Amino acid sequence: MVVLQTDKVTKQYRMGEVKLNALNQVDFAVEKGEFVTIMGPSGSGKSTLLHLLGGLDGASDGEVTLAGKPLSKLNDNDVTLIRRRNVGFIFQFYNLVPTLTAEENVALPLLIDGKRIDDHRQKIEDLIALVGLSDRMQHKPDQMSGGQQQRVAIARALVTDPDIILADEPTGNLDSKSGTAILELLRRTCDELGHTIVTVTHDARAASYADRVIFLQDGRIVHELRRADADRQHLMEAIIDVMRRLD
C-alpha cells in the first residue's frame, strides 16, 4: 500500500530574473511500513523534497499525494489538517517547547487537534516508555540531554498515529552514541510497530538503517539502493561509494 507519492514534482524558486529548479520532475513513492532515506550533495533538493512531502511547502508543478489525498487540490486549512493528523515530524534541533515537560511535549499534537489529554494519557505514557524515558516524564528540555530530547520528539511524532513520519537530519545534532540509539529506535518502530519513515541525512551510517536509500542530484533522483541487496555494513559502503561519485 502506497502511503506517500509524488508525480513529476517540480519546485522552482525565483532569484531576480532567474528561475532555479530545486526539484525537477521527481517521481517517488513510499510503501506502508517502509523506512526510506533521502541523500545527496548540498543543494541537491533533499530538504525541499521533505518539505513538499509533509505539506510544509507546495510544489510548483506536479502532485504530492499524502494519505490518499492530492495536496494541490486542497485548501490551506485541509492541508494543515492532513499535516497535523497524518504526518509526524522529527527535526534536527528537536523543536520541543522549553516550558513544557516531556509528557506535555508529547501530548501537544493531541491538544492542538482539540483532543482531551486525559482520554489519551495511557497512550502518552506508553510512548514515553517506548522511547525509554518513563523516569523523565516530568523533566523539561533543559533537564535532558540532546539524545533524550530527540526521544521525546520521536514520541511526540508518534502520538497521533500518523501515516508517515518525516525526519530531517534526526541525528545531526547528536553524538555518535546518542545518534545510534535514535537510529535503532526508529528502526524498531518501523519493524515492530509498522511505522512508515522518511528521513533526510548526509550521514552514510544513518542512511544504512533504512530499507531504501534515494539519491538526489541537481533536483533529480539519480540512484537508489535497497537494504535487501546487502547487510547494513555493505549498504553503508555502497552509500559512501555513491555519495563520492555524486560530490
Annotation keywords:
247 residues; six-stranded mixed β-sheet; globular; Rossmann fold; four-stranded antiparallel β-sheet
Verbal overview:
About 35% of the residues lie in helices and about 25% in strands. By secondary structure, it is an alpha/beta fold. It has a single domain (about 1-245), classed as Rossmann fold. The strands form 2 sheets. It has a 6-stranded mixed sheet with strand order 6-7-8-3-9-10, with helices on both faces. The chain has a 4-stranded antiparallel sheet with strand order 2-1-4-5, covered by helices on one side. Helix 6 (about 175-195) links the parallel strand 7 and strand 8. Helix 4 packs across helix 5 (about 145-160). The longest helix is centred in the last third of the chain and has 18 residues, at about 175-195.
Low-confidence stretches: none
Task: Give the neighbour order of strands across the main sheet.
Answer: 6-7-8-3-9-10
State the major sheet: 6 strands, mixed
Shape: globular
How many structural domains does the protein architecture include?
A: 1
Percentage of residues in DSSP E strands: 25-35%
What is the top-level CATH class?
Answer: Alpha Beta
Query: What is the SS-derived class?
Result: alpha/beta
Average predicted confidence as pLDDT:
91
Order of helices and strands: EEEHEEHEHHHEHEHEEH
Compute the number of strand runs: 10
Q: How is the CATH topology named? A: Rossmann fold
Helical fraction equals: 25-40%
Distance between the termini: 34 Å
Oligomeric state of the chains in view: single chain
